[in-house]
Amino acid sequence: DNVPGGGVEGLKEELRRQIREAEIVVVPLSIYAENKDLVTFQLDFAGAAKKPVMAIKAFGDTLMMKRDLMERFGETVEWNERSMVDAIRRLARHEDTARWEVIEFTLD
Asked: Residue 104 region, left (φ>0) first, then alpha (ψ -120 to 50), else beta?
């Protein structure tokens, strides 16, 4: 958890810098169990910096999270490219991402 030469505070300062410059903070939910304090720090700073936060569930994940934690995310999406891109557009850029599936077929 320590950054060489900077320790935990050095890591936190680097995270602050990255979050300040980001449009959105993306949190894979699987890392929460590994380092609750660091993820909580990122969520706290993202909130203070008024940055949206998106959580991503791992493919097939059935991880249960506390409601107060889940409420801190603007959206929670599955590990799916379209879902992730659409959520980023909605949260960070306030774009409407309503898409329609187009299936082409021929009638004989």
From this structure: beta
